[in-house]
Design a protein that fits this description.
This protein is an alpha/beta fold and 464 residues long. It contains eleven helices and 23 strands. The strands form six sheets. Strands 7, 8, 9, 10, 11, 12 and 23 form a seven-stranded mixed β-sheet that branches. It has a five-stranded parallel β-sheet with strand order 14-21-15-16-17, covered by helices on one side. Helix 9 runs parallel beside helix 10. The protein is globular, with a radius of gyration of 23 Å. 41% of the residues are buried. Bound molecules: flavin-adenine dinucleotide. The site of flavin-adenine dinucleotide has 39 residues, from helix 7, strand 8, helix 9 and helix 11.
Length: 464
């Protein structure tokens, strides 16, 4: 959008209402400084998004197949462009015949070399599309578990300050932030920024500075071997390191509604499934939750769906959502906010077709037709895989620093002649940053800041 200085409000409204990517203010002289670099950057980002790239990877699947959704979601979150073929349509059937596969084989991924991968596992898929799935070295200075803002922040500082650094990420770099349709409160982005764009920049920055990123590997064990720490992966392989940063964030809590579990990936999604945006066209979408993430999703899907219903357990949005979002939602006619409301039942044979909502004040149940339901109901840390020596609070968040010293007593097994550093866990050399840390502020900026601070403490630990 091209506008004049006096019209900045129009530009901000355009960003909020129709998702304008960027606006330029006149005058833009000298263009070498004010115009060309901005256009270059926009074109480069557009190319990276795959809009112009030839989409060599093809997915043959069914819109209501959960494994097909998982494959699409994995590639989309890792910013790998692909072409989608619905096997229920003639073009998809032609592709199936050409690849020599049957509907029982879906999802089928055809990579650039033409080889069909039948129902690929994430690690197999990652390798096939050129993502690293195995660490290149045997021994690192810093292994970061989790590639969200905290992990990426730590990788940028760790790698740029000379530490041999690797990030282990089970799904896609970016974490929760990568799924946010627009982050409004991150410093330095006055017009907001999509989570995907922000975390893609961070990922590229970390790689350019020398960090390694391993995708589709889940850390399932942490062993202490004298001064070394071993991080074990889900396929039984492992990597050795001097220090570890736990940056595993949080995952959505399961919604305990009758019939819902069977429909996950077939109309029911945890978090914001951007790949489903076009499939929601003309549909009724139900969003469960009342915090900012649910509000962002309601605004996002209202651009595609005919109607959006927000099912909010609390009696108002004010306590859980930022006022700018409440105002945006109030201004969109097609969003209906139902407070004191819970999802009781999800129904549908092949995919989600209806949702039963219950008003907690009156007990009244209403069945509504809906093809999509997105769940945003708070989050829990997934820290069960850590050894007992890593002290956690009652909810499973990892305790660190001063929180570990109770009545002057250091944590059990702590054998150093000092107290744990600010972000150090109860195991020396194992640090924690971001949402997974007990009492942390659940924000992108805090996660990035903690990741950076953790690297300073890693240096201090290595110098001991
Ligand atoms: C939809 C949405 C919108 C949001 N909007 C905003 C906003 O506008 N402003 C704001 O400040 N905050 C926002 N937040 C919150 C913000 O995104 C989080 O606070 C932030 O992402 C936390 O970063 P993190 O790195 O600690 O964890 P996460 O972002 O949760 O990243 C953790 C990563 O670790 C990986 N992982 C977990 N376990 C393992 C394992 N065992 N092995 C390997 N990898 C593992 C996960 O796959 C994930 O990628 C939003 C969150 C959501 C969900």
């Amino acid at each position: 959008m091209l506008t004049a200085y006096a019209d900045t409000n129009a530009a901000i409204a355009a960003i909020n209402v129709v998702d304008v990517d960027h606006y330029l203010l006149k005058p833009w002289e000298p263009p070498e400084e004010k115009l060309y670099p901005v256009i270059d950057e926009l074109l480069a980002a557009w190319q990276r998004d795959g809009h112009t790239a030839e989409r060599k990877i093809k997915i043959l699947g069914h819109p209501w197949s959960a494994p097909s959704y998982q494959v699409r979601d994995f590639l989309a979150r890792n910013l790998v462009p692909y072409r989608w073929y619905n096997v229920a349509e003639p073009e998809g059937q032609r592709m199936m015949a050409a690849a020599g596969v049957t509907p029982d084989d879906i999802p089928v991924v055809i990579t650039s070399d033409g080889e069909p991968l039948i129902r690929p596992e994430p690690a197999q898929l990652a390798t096939a599309v050129g993502l690293s799935t195995m660490p290149a070295e045997e021994f690192y200075d810093l292994v970061i578990v989790g590639g969200g803002p905290a992990g990426l922040g730590a990788a940028v500082y760790g790698a740029s300050e000379g530490l041999r650094t690797v990030i282990i990420e089970r799904a896609a770099a970016g974490g929760q932030a990568g799924q946010s349709s627009r982050i409004e409160n991150y410093l330095g982005f006055p017009d907001g920024v999509s989570g995907g764009q922000l975390t893609d920049r961070a990922r590229r920055q970390a790689l350019r500075l020398g960090a390694e990123l391993i995708t589709a590997r889940t850390a399932v064990g942490l062993e202490i071997q004298g001064p070394a720490r071993r991080v074990v992966f889900d396929d039984g392989t492992s990597v050795l390191t001097k220090t570890v940063l736990l940056a595993t964030g949080v995952s959505y809590r399961r919604l305990p509604a009758d019939g819902l579990d069977d429909l996950v990936g077939r109309g029911v999604y945890y978090g914001s499934a951007a790949t489903q945006a076009t499939a929601c066209a003309g549909d009724h979408v139900v969003i469960v939750g009342g915090a900012n993430s649910a509000g962002q999703a309601a605004v996002f899907f209202s651009r595609h769906a005919a109607r959006v219903t927000m099912a909010v357990r609390g009696d108002s949005l004010e306590r859980s959502m930022s006022s700018y979002l409440i105002e945006q939602i109030a201004a969109i006619d097609t969003i209906d906010v139902r407070t004191c409301t819970q999802v009781d039942h999800c129904g549908g044979s092949d995919h989600l077709e209806c949702v039963t909502l219950v008003d907690a004040r009156t007990g009244e149940a209403q069945q509504v037709d809906a093809g999509h339901l997105f769940v945003f109901i708070g989050a829990a840390p997934l820290t069960d895989w850590l050894p007992a020596g890593v002290v956690r609070d009652d909810a499973g968040f990892v305790r660190s620093g001063p929180d570990l010293v109770v009545d002057g007593q250091r944590p059990a097994g702590w054998d150093l002649d000092r107290e744990p550093y600010l972000l150090e866990s109860s195991i020396p050399g194992v640090f924690v940053a971001g949402d997974v840390r007990s009492e942390s502020v659940k924000r992108v900026a805090s996660a990035v800041g903690e990741g950076a601070l953790a690297v300073t403490l890693v240096h201090r630990y290595l110098a001991e």
